[in-house]
Design a protein that fits this description.
It comes from Trabulsiella odontotermitis. The protein is mainly α and 448 residues long. It has a single domain (10-442), classed as Growth Hormone, Chain: A (Up-down Bundle). It is built from 21 helices and 2 strands. The chain has a two-stranded antiparallel ribbon with strand order 1-2.
Length: 448
Amino acid sequence: MKNSGKKTNVRYLMLVFMGVAMLVNFIDRATLSVAAPVMSKELGFNAADMGWAFSAFGWAYMLCQIPGGILLDKFGSRLVYGLAMLVWSVFTFLQGSIYLFSSAFITLFIFRFLMGMAEAPATPASSRLSVQWFPDNERGFATSIYQTAPYVALGVFTPVLSYVISIFSWHYVFYSAGLLGIIFGAFWLTFVRDPLKHKSINKEELDYIRDGGGIPELGSAARKSQQTITWAQVKSMCATRMMIGVYIGQFCLTSITWFFFTWFPTYLYQEKGLSIIKVGLVAAIPAIAGFVGGIIGGMLSDYLLRKGYSLTLSRKLPIVLGMLLSCSIIVANYTQSVPVVIFVMSLAFFAKGFGNLGWCVLSDTSPKEALGLAGGIFNTFGNVAGILTPLVIGFIIQATGSFDWAIIYVGSMGIIGVIAYLFIVGKLERMTLGATTSPQVSSTAVHN
C-alpha cells in the first residue's frame, strides 16, 4: 500500500477490468443469437429447438447462482471470477464444433448448460467488487459501467461477429469469442486484486471508500471468520417484502435483456427480411441506445443521492421511468417500416438500460455479511427469465408463425416491473443478519 497525501484512484482501473470482464461475459452469451439464423438453417433446428438451446444457459445459470455466491464469499471475487472466465470461454469455443457430434442439438444444449454453470458467479462477483472498491455515491455509476456491457457486446460485436459469419462460417463466431475470453481471463488473474492487497492503492483512497459506505475489508481473513450464515438466514433474505419486489423487478428487466440476446437477430432476419450483414448492423443500434441509457441512469441516480435525496428515490426513480418507457417495444407490432421498428426497439432498449439499477439496489440493501450469497439469490430469481423468455418466445413463434405475441410478452414485462417497484418494494434499506434467524433493517447504514 502506498503512503502519500493525495488520494489514489485505483478503483477506476478495477472498474475497467470489471467492465471488460462483463463485456467478455456477454459476448459469449450473444454468440448463439448471432449464429442462430445461419446455424439453425444448416443443422435443421426449428424455432422450438432454438428456444430450448437458448434456454440451456439460463437453466444452469439460475441453478448455480447460490452455489456461486457461496464460492464468492469463501474464496473472493478475483479468484472465482477469473477461473470461471477461463472455463466458460472453453465451452464457448467448443460450441463451434457441435457439427462433429452425432447429435448436434444435444451437444449444443450440453455446452450451453456448462457455459451457464461457469458464468453463474460473474455478475454477483461484479456487484461484490463494486462494494469493495466504491463508496455509495459512486456505486450507481460503477454499476452502470459493468451493467452496460450487454449493450456494448450487442452494439460493437454483433456486427463484427456477423461479418465473421459472412466471411468464414458460424463456427468461427464461437472460436473467436472463446479465445478472447481465455486471454482476458489470464489478464484478470494476473492484475486484479482486492483493495487491501493492491500495491498501488494508498490509505487515503481506502479511507475514502470506507467512509463513503464501501467495504474494502470484504473478503479479508478477519471478516470471513465473523461470517456465520445459516440456511434460516438465507431463507429470510428471500422472504422480505422489499427483496421480493426487487426480485420481480429484476425478472422483468432480465426478460427484456434476453429477448435482445436471443431472438432479436432472428426477428430481424425472419420477420423483417434483413440479410445477415444488415442484421449485425441494425442490431447494433438499439444496443448503443441501451449503453447510453445505462450510463445516464446510473449517473442520474448518483447525482440525486449526492444532492441529498433519499436512497429510495435516487434508485427507484430511474428504474420506474425506464421500465415504463420500455413498454414502447409493443409499437413495433403496428408498423412495417424497418426504420420505425429500429427506433422503437432503440427507445425500449434505452429505457431498459436507463432503469437497469437492480444490481446497484442489491449492493445498497444486501446484508454486508453475505454479499456474494445475496447476489446469487438475487440473480437466481432474476434469471428465471433466462429460461422462460427464450422458451416462451420459441413456442409462440412455433405456434403462431409470428413474433407479434412475443413482442407483447416482452413489452408487458415493463408494466409488471413498475408495479413491483411502486407497490411492493417500499423503502430501500440495508438488511443485516443478526443473532436470530430473521434479518433486521439498519436505518443508519443508508442515506435517508
